[in-house]
Write a structure and sequence with these properties.
Elements (H helix, E strand, L loop, with lengths): L7 E5 L3 H11 L4 E5 L2 H11 L3 E5 L7 H10 L7 E6 L4 H10 L3 E4 L4 H25 L10 H18 L3 E8 L2 H8 L1 H18 L6 E6 L2 E7 L3 H17 L15 E8 L7 H17 L5 E2 L4
Parallel strand pairs: 1-2, 1-3, 3-4, 4-5, 9-10
Antiparallel strand pairs: 6-8, 6-9, 7-8
The chain binds guanosine-5'-triphosphate.
Guanosine-5'-triphosphate binds next to strand 6, helix 7 and helix 8.
């Protein structure tokens, strides 16, 4: 999202007049979504992942406290800032909401300038928070997800694929004779070569759920959910070939005259997905086999 694109605000209030007043106040500058009950608010929060939620406290069936509790319990919505809208102005009510994770309070009757100022403040904070989050997950040199992001995604996809009963494959890639490349062409050229290899991974992974990350040094990792061993080998071999086609000269390589990678693949299903470290270990063993077998190749099974 760019700095200037409108941010999404979800208004959850059972009183039509409150929805109307707040909507009128905010709709010119922001994208406003309405929900008229706690239940509907939760559904729309998951569907739209807004930047901010204005949440009425007193609602029949599910009150604001319960909605907030459920938002905070769901990893998809736990990061969304919530401002409580309330007619209650007793300190203990305010404290309760803030302790549960609300970011702020707006009391009724509304003062237009106060509502706009509070909303603007929390939207600004939400934008900064998201920017920091994304920077913390991106590797500065290669501009693809870093090890931290890989660890989170891999753990999440292992759990998801186990639940869905599908296979998950991972691939470990290592640049061949990279020490010699650095020694011959210099560290700055080495950095540039890593950036080029990362670009192939960034643009070469077709499916939405696939992820290519820098694993560390001159090693990369691919997460391929819902992909069996044969599919993963085919995809990895295409990427290996695309990297060779970059044709980055490497006169010290004994595998080819250009930069190449060796790749080890592991596929897991069912129970095996409960042990992510074993999947990584297997991929690493196969990477070692690919190296021992002559480099610039993919190894998906024991040779
Ligand atoms: N330029 C650059 N070099 C790096 C970076 N991270 C790791 N390296 C270098 O990558 C090289 C890895 O060398 P080795 O692990 O010995 O393996 P290799 O020379 O690639 O040989 P094989 O893996 O056996 O084909 C080392 O020289 C590291 O210094 C980086 O961010 N930039």
């Amino acid at each position: 999202m760019s700095e200037t694109s409108p941010q999404k605000i979800l208004i959850v209030d059972d009183a039509p007049i409150n929805r109307k007043v707040l909507g009128e106040l905010l709709k010119n500058e922001h994208m406003v979504i309405m929900a008229k009950s706690g239940e509907q608010g939760l559904e729309k929060a998951i569907q739209h992942i807004p930047d901010l939620i204005l949440l009425d406290v007193m609602m029949p069936d599910m009150d604001g406290y319960e909605v907030l509790q459920r938002l905070k319990a769901n990893p998809a919505t736990m990061g969304i800032a919530v401002i409580f809208i309330t007619g209650l102005d007793r300190p203990e009510d305010e404290a309760r909401g803030l302790e549960m994770g609300a970011s702020d309070y707006i009391t009724k009757p509304f003062h237009a300038t106060v509502v706009r100022a509070r909303v603007a403040l929390h939207l600004r904070l939400a934008r900064q928070h998201r920017l920091l989050e994304s920077l913390a997950n991106i590797d500065a040199l290669t501009e693809i997800p870093n090890r931290r992001q890989f660890d989170q995604t891999f753990a999440y996809e292992c759990r998801r694929c186990a639940r869905a009963g599908c296979a998950l494959s991972i691939a470990l890639l290592d640049v061949d004779f990279f020490k010699q490349y650095n020694d011959c062409y210099g560290h700055a050229m080495g950095d540039r070569a890593l950036h080029s290899v990362a670009s192939v991974l960034r643009y070469g992974l077709g499916r939405g759920g696939d992820m290519g990350a820098r694993y560390g040094g001159e090693e990369f990792v691919l997460v391929m959910p819902d992909t069996d061993n044969i599919g993963a080998i085919m995809l990895a071999d295409k990427l290996r070939y695309d990297i060779e086609l970059l044709a980055l000269p490497h006169k010290k390589s004994r595998a080819a005259g250009v930069i190449t990678v060796s790749i080890g693949i592991a596929t897991a299903q069912g129970e095996q997905l409960s042990f992510p470290e074993n999947i990584l270990k297997l991929a690493d063993e196969r990477l070692y086999q690919a190296k021992a077998g002559g480099r610039n190749r993919v190894c998906g099974e024991d040779e």
